[in-house]
């Protein structure tokens, strides 16, 4: 894929994610929860846009980043425990909870490809067990940090509604462990399935 062709794809991805962000900001279920949910994605978009000329990720990494931002913006609009499609799935299959949050944490593990790219391009690391292990460790650290932030939000707000929506436990005492385990699983799958393709894109 040529430089100009990939640039067009990246611009289109930026337009798509901005449109979804605008949609998510229109009458969300709770503005405070929306702000808490979308802020990380918004900051990432701003940073990537400002640094685009000096540091361009592969198109695969941009696809993953945009996909994760869109998942976050949808979750912020409805709150993770009230996404309509997954409420329908919950009722249709008689599930105990809305699993949109679970799906989101699984796919967050796919950000391992982005971390992998940063390590390959900015450090002396090369393909191998060390790269795999360090990438996985970073994803697990990010997943654990996110759970700590969620826990702190409930302490600071003293268990307010916005904090409960942000955490999205839905009564599950093992929610944090599930979220980290799913991020770990997503990370392993992404590295095992996408690494070879990612290597080819990096060579270009």
Layout of SSEs?
Blueprint: H1 3-25, H2 31-50, H3 59-78, H4 84-92, H5 100-108, H6 112-122, H7 129-156, H8 161-167, H9 175-203
Helix pairs in contact: 1-2, 1-3, 2-3, 2-8, 3-5, 5-9, 6-7, 7-8, 7-9
Anisotropy-based shape: globular
Give the terminus-to-terminus CA distance: 8 Å
Strand content: under 5%
Along the chain, the helix and strand elements come as HHHHHHHHH
What's the total count of β strands?
0
Helix content: over 70%
Radius of gyration from the CA trace? Answer: 18 Å
**Low-confidence region ranges:** none
The overall average pLDDT, rounded, is 90
Our count of helices gives: 9
SSE-based structural type: mainly alpha
Largest sheet, if any? none
Task: Describe the protein.
The chain is mostly helical. It has 9 helices and no strands. It has helices at 3-25, 31-50, 59-78, 84-92, 100-108, 112-122, 129-156, 161-167, 175-203. Helix 2 (31-50) packs antiparallel against helix 3 and helix 7 runs antiparallel to helix 8 (161-167). The chain is globular and about 45 Å long. The chain starts with a helix and ends with a helix.
């Amino acid at each position: 894929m040529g430089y100009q062709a990939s640039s067009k794809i990246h611009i289109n991805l930026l337009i798509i994610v901005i449109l979804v962000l605008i949609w998510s900001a229109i009458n969300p279920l709770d503005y405070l929860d929306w702000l808490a949910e979308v802020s990380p994605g918004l900051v990432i978009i701003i940073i990537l846009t400002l640094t685009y000329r000096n540091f361009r990720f592969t198109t695969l990494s941009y696809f993953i980043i945009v996909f994760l931002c869109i998942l976050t913006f949808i979750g912020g609009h409805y709150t993770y425990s009230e996404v309509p499609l997954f409420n329908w799935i919950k009722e249709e299959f008689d599930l105990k909870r809305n699993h949109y949050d679970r799906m989101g944490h699984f796919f967050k593990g796919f950000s391992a490809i982005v971390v992998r790219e940063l390590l390959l391009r900015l450090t002396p690391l090369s393909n191998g067990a060390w790269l795999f292990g360090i990438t996985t460790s970073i994803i697990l650290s990010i997943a654990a940090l996110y759970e700590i932030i969620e826990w702190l939000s409930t302490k600071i707000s003293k268990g307010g509604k916005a904090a409960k929506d942000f955490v999205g436990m839905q009564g599950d005492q093992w929610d944090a462990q599930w979220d980290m385990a799913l991020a770990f699983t997503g990370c392993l799958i992404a590295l095992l399935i996408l690494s070879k393709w990612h290597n080819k894109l990096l060579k270009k």
